[in-house]
Automatic annotation (TrEMBL):
It is an enzyme of class 6 (ligase). One of its GO terms (cellular component) is cytosol. It holds the Pfam family CysS_C. Its cofactor is Zn(2+). Residues 20-326 form the tRNA synthetases class I catalytic domain. The keyword Nucleotide-binding applies. Zn(2+) binds at residues 28, 222, 247, 251. ATP binds at residue 282. Its EC number is 6.1.1.16. It comes from Streptosporangium album. CDD domains: CysRS_core (cd00672). PANTHER family: CYSTEINE--TRNA LIGASE, CYTOPLASMIC, CYSTEINYL-TRNA SYNTHETASE. This is Cysteine--tRNA ligase.
């Protein structure tokens, strides 16, 4: 049974009770005002891995991942109605409407998620299409005494009404300091840690409500959508570590106050992803998109494999060298699977496969799982047909398309064709030292070269026999 680290309880434990056959999982989705970078996708690969491991255990997963297309301000902590919505800010910059921006970047996100083999959720509600749910929830919180209105039409959550606030992040109410505002403390609030559920405004992407025209606060969106699509008992809530506070603290307070009990059983967070030792940010110029990986002639699933090389709750530093290494491993595994597919099928090595599956079950110990998989790859004492069945079985969890080269003609990795041409010219010039050096370089790319009476031939990842080198 899958065991994960619960951020709220500070311990690893079973995600589901013994005998449970279904799991309800909510994941905070993207704010669709720009392209999601590879760091953003670490959270979604985490949720997908949880889903795949659970489904291999015959657990039915009902997942919900929202689309935030309104309400997320440029400064997420800003409750000023004049604060600019991220979607609208980008719309102004690109000369399009907010809805056009949201739909464009939503489509881009879904395309990238599919490219990374992230299975789609059963529910993917948009904030702009569920405003009625948020208004209903705010009304319920007001009725139960967990929220209050301000004269300008704002509605705030009363943080003091939820005494267990801070259990996820450790940021207790009595330790929170007021935010920095030029004009001092917000006079509309009873307590400086209260947050806005409804913000008055009369501009694009606003709606009528019992408190006047405006738009919902970012935090209330996930509460309303998760309760509507997954119900009042949610097994697992996932997100990036940066969402622990204030987003998930606020969401927990809202949901539990509306339902009257603890809604989410387990909170699971993925750690930050750095690139070249720095946080991915537009200001630092090190944003890496999935399209950048493809433009570098790397398989986009090399990103997924690189993410699996580290445990989800450990900070990870991704580099281009890391991605190139993952791409090389991915191509080699696909080549091995294609080669093994030509051997008679054999039963999987049960103990080896069970050990790898146990690593996944143990708080998603993906580094151990991959190390055991590499050992299996190298163990020639195990029949090729047996390794073939094991790799395909485990790829249902890995999601790396390891069978994609079966039946394909041999193909050269990037740069290999030019090296082959250089080697052919070196042999024609009887430059044997250069010929040997180029053979070694090709071997480093996974290309084996053989010299025959009719010229050199090669064999490469994804192929069967050697073929003549192209002129």
């Amino acid at each position: 049974m899958l065991r994960l680290y619960d951020t709220r309880n500070r311990q690893v434990g079973p995600v589901l009770p013994e005998g449970a056959r279904s799991m309800r999982m909510y994941t905070c989705g993207p704010t669709v005002y720009r392209h999601a970078h590879v760091g953003n996708f670490r959270t979604y690969v985490l949720s997908d891995l949880i889903r795949r491991v659970s489904e291999r255990q015959r657990i039915r997963v009902i997942a919900c991942r929202n689309i935030t297309d309104v309400g997320h301000l440029v400064d997420a902590a800003d409750i000023d109605p004049e604060g600019e919505d991220k979607v609208l800010a980008q719309a102004r910059a690109e000369g399009r409407t907010g809805l056009e921006i949201a739909r464009f970047y939503e489509a881009a996100f879904l395309s990238d998620a599919a490219t990374l083999n992230i299975r789609p959720p059963e529910h993917s509600p948009r904030a702009t299409e569920t405003i009625d749910l948020m208004i209903e929830m705010i009304a319920k919180l007001l009725e139960k005494g967990h929220a209050y209105t301000a004269p300008d039409g704002s509605v705030f959550f009363d943080a003091a009404s939820f005494p267990t606030y801070g259990e996820i992040s450790g940021n207790r109410l009595d330790r929170l300091r007021p935010g920095h505002r030029l004009e001092g403390a917000d006079p509309r609030k009873r307590f400086h840690a209260d947050w806005a559920l409804w913000k008055p405004a009369d501009r694009e992407m606003t709606w009528d409500s019992p408190w006047g025209r405006g738009f919902p606060g970012w935090h209330v969106e996930c509460s309303a959508m998760s309760l509507r699509f997954l119900g009042e008992h949610i097994d697992l809530h996932t997100g990036g570590i940066d969402l622990r506070f204030p987003h998930h603290e606020d969401e927990r307070a809202q949901s539990d106050s509306a339902a009257g009990h603890e809604v989410v059983r387990h909170w699971v967070h993925g750690e930050h992803l750095l690139f070249d030792g720095r946080k991915m940010a537009k200001s630092t110029g090190n944003i890496v998109l999935l399209s950048d990986v493809v433009d570098a002639a790397l398989d986009p699933l090399a990103v997924r494999l690189a993410l699996l090389e580290h445990r989800y709750r450990q900070q990870m530093n991704l580099t281009w060298d890391t991605l190139r290494a993952a791409d090389k491993t991915l191509r080699r595994w696909r080549s091995r699977v294609a080669g093994w597919s030509e051997s008679p099928s054999r039963a999987m090595p049960a103990e080896r496969v069970s050990a790898i599956e146990a690593a996944f079950d143990d708080d998603l110990d993906t580094p151990l799982a991959l190390r055991l998989l590499r050992e299996l790859e190298r163990d020639d004492a195990i029949a090729p047909g047996s390794r073939f069945e094991a790799f395909l079985h485990l790829d249902q969890i890995l999601g790396l398309d390891l069978s994609i080269d079966i039946g394909r003609a041999p193909s050269l990795p990037p740069g290999a064709a030019e090296l082959l041409r250089q080697r052919e010219r070196a042999r024609e010039a009887r430059d044997w030292a250069a010929s040997d050096r180029l053979r070694d370089e090709l071997a480093g790319l996974g290309v084996k070269v053989a010299d025959t009476s009719e010229g050199q031939t090669w064999s490469a990842p994804g192929g069967g026999g050697a073929v003549d080198v192209p002129r």
